[in-house]
C-alpha cells in the first residue's frame, strides 16, 4: 500500500495543489481542535486526539456549508464490479468495497487541503460517516459527500479525491458531481476558490469537469442557493471496466475532462506513517465479509436509481432555543462527544429518527455537529448559535413522502420541516429538496410537498427546477410577525407598532413605494452598551466597504440600548447589510436595521388611534450655528428621537406609535398610547414632552382631512377605521360621507385591490346617529332622501371586508352586511334594535337579513330587536369566521391582501356574480346565465391567458389587471 502511493509521490505536489491557496493568516475560525480521548463514546469512534476541544472564534462564523457530492457510479454496484481489481494493499480494508476501502489516513490528508480535521467516525454496512471540525464527510462505496463550513476550501479536495479514487478503487471517471451552497453570510472572508460563485467556484469546477451547469436559485437580493451539477456520464461503468488494466497512477483521464496543467492533481507528499494516536481504532471499521444488506445495496443497478436529499438551512435562530448549543459554565469538561450526546437528547435531535445511530460533538465555547446513520441513509446537523451569525443546517437523504398529505409510510416533507424548525426556532429558513426524477410522480404533489402549512411562517418563494435526472424544489420561509401582521407589505403603510420588533417605520421601509429613495447609510437599532465601533466595523464590514460609522448614542436611552449609523460606499452593500442583519442579533440583542430615510418632506401620516403625547423639539445649542447645519441636525435629532421612542415603547406596554413632522422639522408629533417617564435627549437637542394625555381613546386628532374615520393603505389593501369612539362609532351623516369618500378613493386607486372596514374593539358601529335623527321630520328625511348616500357602498366594485368587534347594531349591522365578507371577534354583538326606537331598519337590514338567514329568523331579529352573537351570526352565514378579538383585523387584512394579489377585473366579476345571486332579483336560471356570461367575459382578459398559462407552466401568475 505504502509503496503504491510512494511510487507516485511528487515532491512538489503541495506547491501545485496549494498554488492558489491563501495563507493561514486568513483562516479565522478554528485554530486548533483537539479531542479528549475520554470523549470516545462508542467503539466506532476513532478520534483520539489529546486535550479538550478549543476553538478560537473571531466573533462571527460562516455557518452555511459548501456541499460536494462526487459520484463514481449510480449505485454501489460500480464498486463491486471493480472489487477484484489488483488492489495491492496488505490490510484487511480490501474486504470493503469502493471508496470505503480507502484508509482514513488518506481522507485525513485530503481534508488537510480543505483545512479541516476529522473528529470521529461511525460506520455501518453501507457508509462511513466522519464528523469533521467543520461539518461532515460521508463515504459510500460509490460516492463521497463532503460538507464543510467556515472558510474551508472544499473544492480544492477534488483533485486529491480523484487521485484517491483512481489509485485505490480504479475509479477513473466520475459519474456525476454536485456542488451547492447557500449564499454566504460573510462572503468577503472566503478564500480561493470560494471568493466568488461565478468567477471562482464555477470556473474551478468547469476546469475540472465537462457538462457542468451552474445555477443561482432564489432571490438574488435575499437568501438564495447556488448549485453546480454535471450531467450523468452513463458510460462510466463501461469506462471503469475498460480501464481495468490502467496502472494505479493518476492521469488526466481521472476526470471527464482533460485538466489544464496547473490543475493536474499530482499527489501531495504523504507521510505514510499514521499518527500514533489517530488510527488506533482503524481495524474496527473492518468487516470480515460483505453482509446481506451490503450485498443488497451493491446490487442495486443504475436503472433502479433513486436519490433524494433535503436540506433545511436556518438563520436568525431564536437565542433561547439555541442556548443548549453552548458549553455550560457549570462544567469544565463540557465539550466533545459526551456532551454532544447529551444535547442530542435535550434538543430533540435524537428523536427525529429514533432508530438512527448518532455521533455528535459540542464545540468550545459553542457550536454543535452531528452525523446520524439509518441503514444506507444519513442525516447531519450543524449549529452555529452565536447571535451575530446564527445558523443551523439539517441535511438528510432518508426518504420522505413527496405527497403533501400522505400519512402512510414515511414522514412528509412538511412533517420533517416542522420537527426540525421546532428545535431551532429560526426567523428564516430555506429548503432544498433534490430528488431523482421519477416519470410516474405527479409534479404538483412534489411542488405542494413544500407547502404553506408551516405554522407561523410565510412561504416567500417556491421554485421547481427540472434538471438532468433530478427535480429540485427550492422554497424560502420567513416567520410571520407576531403582532398585527400589517407588516407583510408595508409599502403604503403609514403607522407602525412598537411591539413588532422586526418591522420598520414606513418612512424607512426598504420597499416603500412612497418612501424616499434609500441612501447608502443604514441605521442599526437596539444595540447593547457593549457594542463598540470596532465591533460594528467587524460585523458590518463583511457586507461591503464602510465609508463612515457613527455610534452617537451608545448612552442610556433606555436599558442600555442605542443606535448606530453605518454608511457604505454603495447602495447594494447597504442593502445587503440590511437584508442580512435586520431581525438578526448582536450580543443577544435583537437588531433592527433600516436605511436612513431622506426626509426633506416626510410622508403624510394619518392619525390612526390615540394621541397621548406631543413632543416638541427645542434646540439648545451652546453656539450659534448656521441654518443649513441646524436643519441637518434637527433632522438627525428627530430620527434619533423617533428611534428612542421605540425603546421607550418597548419598555412600556403594547403600543402603537405614529410619527410625523409638523411645522417643517421643528415639531415632532407623536401618537402613542402610554408612556412613562419620558425623558429623551439627543446630541445637542433636547426633547421635551409638552403634553401628556395618557392612554385614553377619543383624543385623536386626525391628521388627514377626515374627522370621523382613519384611513391607511397597507400594500394593496385600503383600511378604513371608524373613529368616533365617544359615540361608539355611531354613523352620523358626516361619518358616512367620509366613508363614501374613502371608498371612492380606494375604488379609483389602481394600487388598491381590496378594502377593509373596521371599528374599535368596543364598537364596530352602534348604528345610525340617534342624536342626529331624533328631531328630524318626515318631510325633511323624505325630501333629502335621508340615508340615500348609505347606498354608495353597494356601488363599490372592489371587494370589501368588514372586521367587526364589539357592537354592530342597527346601521352598524347593516354596514357589516353591506360588505362582501364579514370576520367577527368572539365578543361581537349584532342586532337590528331599531324597533325599540320606534323605527325599522332603513339601510337594507330587513332585506339582507332575510336573504341571509331566512324569513323566520329575520322576523325574530327585526321584530323583537334582540341582539345576536358572533357565533350565531357565523352559524347563520352572516359572518364567515369568528376569531379572537385581537386577531380579527389582522386576519381580515391577511385575507384582503390575498384577494388583492389576484387579478382585479376577475375578482370584480366574481363579486358581481355572487351579488346577483344574493339579490334574488334574478331566477336561478337567469343568475346562472348571468354568471356564464361573466365567465365567458373573462376570456377577453389578458389575466385569463396568464392565469392558465402559469398553471400549466407551474409558476405563479403575473397579473396585469387587464
Ligand atoms: C338606519 C339605521 C338606523 C339605526 O341604526 S338606529 C340606531 C340603532 N342602534 C341602537 O339603537 C343602539 C344604541 N346604543 C345602545 O343601545 C348603547 O349605546 C349600547 C348598547 C350600544 C352600548 O351601551 P353602553 O355601553 O351603556 O354605552 P352608552 O353609554 O349607551 O353609549 C356611549 C355613548 O355612545 C353614544 N351612542 C351609542 N349609540 C349611539 C347611537 N346609535 N347614536 C348616537 N349616540 C350613540 C351614547 O349616547 C353615549 O354617549 P354619551 O356618553 O354622550 O351619552
TrEMBL record:
Keywords per UniProt: Fatty acid metabolism, Lipid metabolism, Lyase, Polyamine biosynthesis, RNA-binding, Spermidine biosynthesis
Similarity comment text for this entry: Belongs to the eukaryotic AdoMetDC family.
Top-level EC class as recorded in UniProt: lyase
One term under GO cellular component: cytosol
Annotated GO biological process: fatty acid metabolic process; spermidine biosynthetic process; spermine biosynthetic process
Enzyme Commission numbers on file: 4.2.1.17
Keyword Transport applies: no
Pathway it works in: Amine and polyamine biosynthesis; S-adenosylmethioninamine biosynthesis; S-adenosylmethioninamine from S-adenosyl-L-methionine: step 1/1
Residue ranges of every copy of the RRM domain listed in the record: 520-598
Protein name, per record: Probable enoyl-CoA hydratase, mitochondrial
Molecular functions (GO terms): adenosylmethionine decarboxylase activity; enoyl-CoA hydratase activity; RNA binding
Amino acid at each position: 500500500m505504502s509503496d503504491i502511493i510512494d511510487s507516485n509521490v511528487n515532491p512538489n505536489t503541495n506547491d501545485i495543489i496549494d498554488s492558489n491557496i491563501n495563507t493561514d493568516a486568513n483562516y479565522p475560525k478554528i485554530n486548533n481542535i483537539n479531542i479528549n480521548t475520554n470523549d470516545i463514546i462508542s467503539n466506532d469512534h476513532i478520534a483520539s486526539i489529546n486535550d479538550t476541544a478549543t476553538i478560537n472564534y473571531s466573533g462571527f462564523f460562516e455557518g452555511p456549508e459548501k456541499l460536494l457530492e462526487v459520484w463514481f457510479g449510480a449505485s454501489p454496484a460500480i464498486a463491486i464490479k471493480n472489487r477484484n481489481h489488483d488492489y495491492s494493499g496488505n490490510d484487511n480494508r480490501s474486504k470493503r468495497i469502493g471508496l470505503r476501502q480507502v484508509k482514513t489516513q488518506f481522507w485525513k490528508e485530503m481534508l488537510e487541503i480543505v483545512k479541516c480535521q476529522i473528529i470521529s467516525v461511525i460506520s455501518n454496512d453501507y457508509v462511513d460517516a466522519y464528523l469533521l471540525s467543520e461539518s461532515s464527510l460521508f463515504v459510500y462505496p460509490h460516492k463521497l459527500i463532503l460538507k464543510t463550513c467556515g472558510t474551508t476550501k472544499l473544492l480544492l479536495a477534488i483533485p486529491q479525491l480523484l487521485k484517491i479514487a483512481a489509485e485505490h478503487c480504479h475509479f477513473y471517471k466520475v459519474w456525476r458531481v454536485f456542488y451547492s451552497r447557500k449564499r454566504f453570510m460573510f462572503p468577503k472572508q472566503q478564500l480561493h476558490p470560494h471568493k466568488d460563485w461565478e468567477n471562482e467556484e464555477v470556473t474551478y469546477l468547469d476546469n475540472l469537469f465537462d457538462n457542468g451547469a451552474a445555477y443561482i436559485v432564489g432571490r438574488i437580493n435575499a437568501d438564495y442557493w447556488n448549485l453546480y451539477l454535471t450531467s450523468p456520464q452513463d458510460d462510466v461503468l463501461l469506462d471503469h471496466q475498460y480501464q481495468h488494466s490502467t496502472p494505479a497512477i493518476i492521469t488526466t483521464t481521472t476526470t471527464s475532462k482533460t485538466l489544464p496543467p496547473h490543475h493536474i492533481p499530482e499527489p501531495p507528499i504523504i507521510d505514510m506513517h499514521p499518527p500514533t494516536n489517530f488510527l488506533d481504532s482503524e481495524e474496527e471499521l473492518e468487516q470480515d465479509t460483505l453482509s446481506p444488506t451490503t450485498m443488497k445495496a451493491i446490487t442495486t443497478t443504475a436503472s433502479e436509481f433513486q436519490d433524494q436529499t433535503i436540506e433545511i438551512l436556518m438563520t436568525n435562530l431564536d437565542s433561547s432555543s439555541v442556548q443548549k448549543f453552548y458549553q455550560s459554565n457549570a462544567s469544565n469538561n463540557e465539550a466533545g462527544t459526551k456532551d454532544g450526546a447529551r444535547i442530542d437528547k435535550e434538543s430533540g435531535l435524537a428523536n427525529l429518527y429514533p432508530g438512527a445511530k448518532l455521533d455528535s460533538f459540542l464545540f468550545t465555547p459553542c457550536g454543535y455537529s452531528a452525523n446520524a446513520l439509518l441503514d444506507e441513509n444519513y442525516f447531519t446537523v450543524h449549529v452555529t448559535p452565536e447571535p451575530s451569525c446564527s445558523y443551523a443546517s439539517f441535511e438528510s437523504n432518508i426518504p420522505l413522502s413527496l405527497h403533501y398529505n400522505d400519512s402512510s409510510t414515511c414522514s412528509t416533507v412538511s412533517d420533517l420541516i416542522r420537527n426540525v424548525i421546532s428545535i431551532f426556532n429560526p426567523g428564516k429558513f430555506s429548503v432544498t429538496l433534490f430528488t431523482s426524477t421519477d416519470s410516474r410522480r405527479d409534479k404538483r404533489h412534489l411542488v405542494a410537498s413544500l407547502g404553506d402549512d408551516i405554522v407561523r411562517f410565510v412561504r416567500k418563494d417556491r421554485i421547481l427546477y427540472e434538471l438532468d435526472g433530478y427535480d429540485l424544489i427550492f422554497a424560502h420561509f420567513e416567520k410571520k410577525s407576531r403582532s398585527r401582521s400589517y407588516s407583510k407589505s408595508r409599502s403604503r403603510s403609514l403607522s407602525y407598532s412598537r411591539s413588532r420588533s422586526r418591522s420598520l417605520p414606513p418612512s424607512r421601509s426598504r420597499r416603500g413605494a412612497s418612501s424616499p429613495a434609500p441612501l447608502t447609510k443604514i441605521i442599526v437599532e437596539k444595540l447593547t452598551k457593549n457594542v463598540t465601533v470596532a465591533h460594528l466595523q467587524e460585523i458590518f464590514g463583511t457586507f461591503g466597504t464602510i465609508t463612515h460609522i457613527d455610534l452617537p448614542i451608545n448612552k442610556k436611552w433606555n436599558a442600555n440600548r442605542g443606535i448606530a449609523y453605518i454608511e457604505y460606499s454603495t447602495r447594494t452593500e447597504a442593502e445587503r447589510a440590511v437584508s442580512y442583519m435586520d431581525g438578526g442579533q448582536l450580543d443577544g440583542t435583537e437588531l433592527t436595521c433600516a436605511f436612513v430615510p431622506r426626509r426633506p418632506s416626510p410622508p403624510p401620516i394619518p392619525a390612526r388611534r390615540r394621541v397621548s403625547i406631543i413632543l416638541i423639539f427645542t434646540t439648545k445649542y451652546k453656539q450659534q450655528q448656521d441654518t443649513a447645519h441646524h436643519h441637518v441636525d434637527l433632522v438627525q435629532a428627530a430620527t434619533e428621537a423617533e428611534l428612542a421612542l421605540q425603546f421607550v415603547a418597548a419598555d412600556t406596554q403594547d403600543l402603537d406609535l405614529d410619527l410625523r413632522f409638523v411645522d417643517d422639522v421643528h415639531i415632532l408629533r407623536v401618537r402613542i398610547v402610554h408612556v412613562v417617564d419620558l425623558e429623551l435627549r439627543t446630541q445637542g437637542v433636547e426633547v421635551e414632552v409638552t403634553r401628556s394625555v395618557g392612554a385614553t381613546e377619543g383624543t385623536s386628532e386626525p391628521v388627514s382631512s377626515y374627522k370621523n374615520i382613519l384611513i391607511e393603505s397597507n400594500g394593496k389593501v385600503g383600511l378604513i377605521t371608524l373613529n368616533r369612539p365617544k359615540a361608539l362609532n355611531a354613523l352620523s351623516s358626516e361619518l358616512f360621507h367620509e366613508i363614501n369618500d374613502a371608498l371612492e378613493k380606494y375604488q379609483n386607486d389602481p394600487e388598491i385591490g381590496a378594502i377593509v372596514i373596521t371599528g374599535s374593539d368596543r364598537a364596530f358601529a352602534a348604528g345610525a346617529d340617534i342624536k342626529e335623527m331624533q328631531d328630524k321630520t318626515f318631510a325633511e328625511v323624505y325630501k333629502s332622501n335621508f340615508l340615500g348616500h348609505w347606498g354608495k357602498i353597494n356601488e363599490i366594485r372592489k371587494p370589501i371586508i368588514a372586521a367587526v368587534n364589539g357592537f354592530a347594531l342597527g346601521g352598524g349591522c347593516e354596514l357589516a352586511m353591506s360588505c362582501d365578507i364579514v370576520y367577527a371577534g368572539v365578543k361581537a354583538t349584532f342586532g337590528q334594535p331599531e324597533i325599540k326606537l320606534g323605527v325599522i331598519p332603513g339601510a337594507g337590514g330587513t332585506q339582507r337579513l332575510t336573504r341571509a338567514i331566512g324569513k323566520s329568523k329575520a322576523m325574530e331579529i327585526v321584530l323583537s330587536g334582540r341582539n345576536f352573537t358572533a357565533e350565531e351570526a357565523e352559524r347563520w352565514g352572516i359572518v364567515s369566521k369568528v376569531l379572537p378579538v385581537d386577531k380579527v383585523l389582522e386576519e381580515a387584512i391577511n385575507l384582503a391582501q390575498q384577494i388583492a394579489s389576484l387579478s382585479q377585473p376577475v375578482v370584480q366579476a366574481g363579486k358581481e356574480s355572487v351579488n346577483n345571486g344574493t339579490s334574488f332579483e334574478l331566477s336561478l336560471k337567469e343568475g346562472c346565465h348571468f354568471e356564464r356570461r361573466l365567465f365567458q367575459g373573462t376570456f377577453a382578459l389578458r389575466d385569463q391567458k396568464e392565469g392558465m398559462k402559469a398553471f400549466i407552466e407551474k409558476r405563479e401568475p403575473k397579473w396585469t389587471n387587464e
